[in-house]
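Researcher: Next sequence.
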Amino acid sequence: MKKCDICDKSGKVQYRVKSIEYKNWIFCCKVCWKTISKHEKYFYGGTRKSS
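Model: Next structure:
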């Protein structure tokens, strides 16, 4: 399992995103994604699933 770049929690599914607050691509969990998806200049770059 991979860790969220924001909250550091492990999870099997993460989202590759960037926004005005996170200028470089990061991987985040679903909880953090819900917040970031509301940021200005939000971009979604795919989903990472670990087995």
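Model: The chain has one helix and five strands. The mean pLDDT is 95.
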